[in-house]
Amino acid sequence: MRTPAEIEAMRPAGKFVAEVLTALAAASDVGVNLLELDALAHRMIRERGAESCYIDYHPSFGAMPFGKVLCTSVNDAALHGLPFDYELQDGDLVSLDFAASVDGWVADSALSLVVGTPRQEDLDLIELVETALKAGIAAAVAGNKMGDVSAAIGAVARSAGLGINTDFGGHGVGHTMHGDPHVPNDGRAGRGYPLKPGLVFAIEPWFMLGTDEIYTDPDGWTLRSVDGSRAAHVEHTIAITKSGPIVLTARD
Q1: Mean pLDDT of the chain
Q2: How far is Cα 185 from Cα 202, in angstroms, rounded to an integer?
Q3: CA-based Rg of the chain, rounded to a whole angstrom?
Q4: How high is the pLDDT of residue 192?
Q5: Distance (Å, rounded) from C-alpha 71 to C-alpha 38?
Q6: Which residues in 80-197 belong to E strands, given as ranges?
Q7: Is the pLDDT of residue 59 over 90?
Q8: Cβ-count burial 71-85 (b if 16+ within 10 Å, e if not)
Q9: How far from 197 is each of 11, 22, 134, 203, CA to CA, in Å?
Q10: 93 backbone dihedrals φ, ψ, rounded to 5°
């Protein structure tokens, strides 16, 4: 649990992550290379004196240290998209996931967008994950359980007839990017970890239009839908307080 003073100390990290994602979204366009987006994020990290949470990240499910500072998941890539030499094409669905540490505190956030001419089904999918994120945040109040957050997210996916993968989800955030508690994207209301003031975690809905199964790309990191269906992913870092959840990574 974090004290009110510690939550205040986390605000600069949340603000920085929000600023980087806003800049990345503005820079994302047809013809822009994924490596250019990663370079932009890297430059902003250096200018701020922040630290990347990704570049040396090497969990058990990664084939090697990530080596980049940004996740760029395109079309059928759902999560952990490793930037590579690819120029965005008209109509590409792109998810950008970014985490950084500022003054020893971490914030983590993600957004999804379409470059060029959008497909309506892609816009609907983005709206759906954003609705699920809002529902999860609304359920993240002191006195509830983590299952209430998970159930709220899962209900949005099921309302659209989508399957839900719970292999990856939200997570505790603090001095490191990933910690307890785990925040599944589906669950049973009234069950699980109790939500108390001072708890800080990321809520991270990600849905795919077809299957709920994923596989790892040959790059050793990028997770793709097994049927090639498109995916969208959004995320905010929030803090539980007595007066309700604070979205530390809120974008203007």
Answers
A1: 97
A2: 11
A3: 17
A4: 94
A5: 8
A6: 93-102, 105-114, 170-172, 179-183
A7: no
A8: bbbbbbbbbbbbbee
A9: 16, 29, 19, 16
A10: -95, 120
Give pLDDT tens digits for 79-118.
999 999 999 999 999 999 999 999 999 999 999 999 999 9
Number of H helices, E strands in the chain: 4, 14
Residue 61 confidence (pLDDT) above 90: no
Percent with pLDDT over 70 in the chain: 100
CB 237 within 8 A of CB 11: no
User: pLDDT of 125-150, one tens digit each?
Assistant: 999 999 999 999 999 999 999 999 99
Was domain 4-247 assigned CATH 3.90.230.10? yes
Domain-wise residue ranges, the chain: 4-247
CA 229 to chain CA centroid, Å, is 19
Tell me the C-alpha distance between 176 and 47, whole Å: 21
Residue with tokens 């499910």: 61
Q: Is 67 exposed, middle or buried (0-12, 13-18, 19+ CB in 10 A)?
A: middle
